[in-house]
Amino acid sequence: YDCILENVYSYAGCPFSKVVIGGRPDAVRDALFDNEHFLLKIHGTFDETDGQLVTRSDYQTHYGDNIAESFSPDLPLPKLLLRIFGSRRLLFLGCSLRGDRILTLLHYLHRDRLDPSASHFAIIPQESTPQKTLEKEKFLRERNIEPLFYPPPDHSAVHTLLSALKSRQSSQKLIPTSKRVYNHKYNVLNKLIANSIKHMREQ
């Protein structure tokens, strides 16, 4: 709802061409069709009441109240998100990735094999135990999300992983498998990074 991302991107010299509200599917479709560098605020922004999703009633209006799925796929917003998730690869950053409507939509796509080509990725902290991390990994893969885990509370690892992704986009060189990073062997990270870059370049 805030303007942090707009400010950060502007400060970095790559401002968004526009900010689009998720509750306005026509504007989102136009920006996607034109392949613009835009920011999609799925649930609205703080300074515009039109398109804001705050209350339970707001969510039911825009997502529907289908008890089994927690959304109705024929409504404009779910239909738009299903189209985006099924055709574009996403990188999740700063998300807890626990039960919500977005994950329900991704599970719907993956379960019914409606997105055979779109795989997504997430950089997230490990869970409190190895078993819980494995369960989280299974949960995400059931939603077609490949996780890159790092041990909390060292969130600087996010920068390291993003830098590794960026360097591989230009060099395609893998990290030496004799070293270790964040409790994972480098070859595990290499496979995930190489796979993500392959998918990015296939778009």
Explain the overall architecture.
Residues 171-186 and 199-203 have low confidence and may be disordered. The chain contains eight helices and seven strands. It has a three-stranded parallel beta sheet with strand order 3-4-5. It is α/β, with parallel strands linked by helices. Helix 6 (130-141) links the parallel strand 4 and strand 5 (145-150).
Secondary-structure topology with pairs:
Blueprint: H1 4-11, E1 18-21, H2 25-33, E2 38-41, H3 56-63, H4 76-87, E3 91-93, H5 101-111, E4 120-125, H6 130-141, E5 145-150, H7 156-171, E6 180-181, E7 184-185, H8 186-202
Parallel strand pairs: 1-2, 3-4, 4-5
Antiparallel strand pairs: 6-7
Highlighted features:
46% helix; 8 helices; alpha/beta; 203 residues; three-stranded parallel sheet; two-stranded parallel sheet; globular; single chain; 13% strand
Query: What's the Cα radius of gyration?
Result: 18 Å
Computed structural class: alpha/beta
Shape descriptor: globular
Quaternary arrangement of the chains shown? single chain
Q: Which residue ranges are poorly predicted, with pLDDT under 50 across at least 5 consecutive positions?
A: 171-186, 199-203
Largest sheet: spatial strand order: 3-4-5
Task: Tell me the number of helical segments per DSSP (H or I, 4 or more residues long).
Answer: 8
In total, the number of strands is 7
**Secondary-structure element pattern, one letter each:** HEHEHHEHEHEHEEH
* Residue share in helix: 40-55%
